[in-house]
Amino acid sequence: MNLFTLSYNGVMHKTINILNYLEYSKKDAMRILENEMGWKYYGGKHFESIYTRFYQGYILPKKFGYDKRRMHLSSLICSGEITRVEALEELKSEPYPQVLQKQDKEYVIKKFGLTEEEFERIMSLPIKKFEDFPSYENSLLYKSMRILLRTFKIRSPW
Q: Distance between CA atoms of 144 and 47, rounded to whole angstroms?
């Protein structure tokens, strides 16, 4: 793929998010999944796995100050399923019960072969960005391509 192919693909293709044109209700979807498919609610988005529950409900908020519930609740506000007041009220609570957080923490520490002290040391380390590590995005070639694309107003395929 050369620069001209990339620019052609970046300029000529248009994405249509077809699901944006359908009515959707989270409550109705969950009810259908439970009644017709035997699905069980796990207590949170992506909480079906201990690790993802711990990562999203403990590590992200405590280490990075990032609560994924904000994004999920925001989409429910935009769709009119909940109010902003209801979302803010939900954000006042812990992402999931502290007793379960403690159990998950012990489980993850054991699975990773860490001690509690090692885990806490990792959690207290300074936050790193991907730019702090070697990658192609830090290379002169990549940076030059980005400048060329911006200069010629070509939408990046990346």
A: 42
